[in-house]
Design a protein that fits this description.
single chain; 120 residues; mainly alpha; 1 helix; 88% helix; transmembrane; transmembrane helix; membrane; coiled coil
């Protein structure tokens, strides 16, 4: 067999070295497990907050819908009130014209009698 140069002879690890490496791996796994548990608890807290936020958002949405309906109703009432006000103003104008016309007619009919009675 030819001789291989440059290759170092590898010795088998001892039981002590293997146990030490296993202990290091166990410690690393424990750290990873601890970090995962910490992240899991943080995620649980985030889920709870998200649930509470969702409930608050739903309540806010309901309130917004109620406010929208009330605002829509109020706008309808304002529009109706404006229409009634315009109609009332027009009726007053018509009534005023009738009153002035009636007064002028009555005065023009009575005036000749007054002039005849007082000035003759």
């Amino acid at each position: 067999m030819p001789k291989k140069e440059g290759l170092a002879k590898v010795t088998e690890p001892s039981a002590y070295d293997l146990l030490r490496k296993l202990t290091e791996v166990e410690i690393a796994l424990a750290k990873v497990t601890q970090q995962l548990e910490s992240q899991t608890s943080v995620l649980e807290e985030v889920r709870k907050e998200l649930s509470m936020t969702r409930e608050k958002a739903d309540a806010a949405e309901e309130k917004a819908e109620i406010a929208y309906r009330k605002a829509k109703q109020a706008l309808g009432e304002i529009k109706q009130t404006r229409e009634e006000t315009l109609r009332t103003q027009n009726e007053r104008k018509v009534d005023r014209r009738w009153f002035i016309g009636t007064v002028l007619t009555v005065v023009s009919l009575i005036m000749p009698m007054i002039i005849t009675f007082y000035f003759q």
